Amino acid sequence: MIDFVRKESYGLNDLKNIVSILRAPGGCPWDIEQTHESLCRGTLEECYEVIEAIHEQDPDHLREELGDLLLQVVFHADIEREEGRFDLEDVADAVSKKLIFRHPHVFGDVTVADSTEVLVNWDQLKRQEKDQETYTDTLTSVARSLPALWRAEKVQKKAKKAGFDWPDTSGAMDKLSEELGELKEAMAQGTNVEEELGDLLFAAVNVARFLDADPEEALNAATDKFISRFAKVEQMALQEGKDMGEMPLEELDKLWERAKRT
Fold first, then answer.
1. What are the angstrom distances between the C-alpha of 84 and each of 96, 102, 261?
2. Who contacts 193 (Cβ-Cβ below 8 Å, separation ≥6)?
3. pLDDT per position as a tens digit, 131-179
4. Taking the alpha carbons of 165, 171, 173, 174 in that order, is the dihedral positive or negative?
5. Which domain holds residue 126?
6. Which among 123, 206, 205, 195 has a CA at the least distance from the CA of 168?
7. Could you give the CA distance from residue 2 to residue 116 in angstroms, rounded to a whole number?
8. Number of folded domains in the chain?
């Protein structure tokens, strides 16, 4: 039996202890086998589930999902503790020092007028902290593991800080039209189709940025709308005694137009 006392409620130190017990000899075989790499997908999924709980505006669900995400942090830190490189206290120490360093208007004698100046200072301090000497350094520092739409948006925002940006939305829209034409040409020639499609998507993200719209949320909303209309089409087909999988596209298009009007 393990040396563990059950309690009415548990705190962060208890969570650290539970994870250590699970990964120690005689603990859970699955937990013992885990590595940073094997946990990557789970860590990412927990982040998304936190975001979903936020969108649901459900405090109980959010508390649960934040706990699952916290478990991932504690788990990764415990792996490093076993290797003798750092532990959760070192993680807390590092992020605390970062916050103090990047908030000189709170912990130092810097004066700011508003949140815009805060962000300007934040970027300058971040570049100093990470030894980013060029604007290109700031672009390459954007994590490739981000969703592609968010990564593109973040790269574009950093490029803007170097003055590399359209003056207004019209330039971004013209570029979108240009990239659509290049994709059509590539499709006709049968070459560079994926490259040109990527350019088109990148240009679409640029338009979203000018419209102050989150491209990830916009695409998710469009997907939800498609599912909703698809369901209506299927329901209308069933009401006509038909299986939509056996209907010609022309009939489905007519039902689709009806679904759009309802």
1. 21, 28, 63
2. 183, 186, 187
3. 999 999 999 999 998 999 999 999 999 999 999 999 999 999 999 999 9
4. negative
5. 91-131
6. 206
7. 53
8. 3
